[in-house]
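Design job #97: recover the sequence.
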């Protein structure tokens, strides 16, 4: 069963551009991973400091492998002190 991830990243207002750049940089290499079925970056239309990443992985192991990649680790390091909050929801599709 595939794993759906909804990552909500709330950037500090003064770091919106840096957070966006770091998030945009991880999209292409993440999409190239064999377990990645979907990896999309969105900006909340009502909250300009909020980014939403919609991801779909073949399984939990694929997502775990993603978190161990150099590009993901670079992202974590780049945004670590520039965000207010990161919320990760792991979902299973029912229908």
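Job complete. Output follows.
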């Amino acid at each position: 069963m595939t794993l759906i991830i909804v990552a909500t990243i709330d950037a500090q207002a003064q770091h919106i551009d840096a957070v966006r750049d770091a998030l945009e940089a991880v999209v292409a290499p993440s999409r190239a991973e064999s377990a990645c079925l979907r990896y999309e970056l969105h900006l909340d239309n009502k909250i300009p400091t909020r980014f939403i990443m919609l991801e779909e992985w073949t399984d939990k192991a694929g997502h775990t492998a993603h978190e161990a990649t150099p590009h993901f680790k670079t992202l974590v390091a780049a945004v670590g002190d520039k965000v207010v909050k990161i919320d990760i929801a792991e979902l299973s599709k029912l229908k």
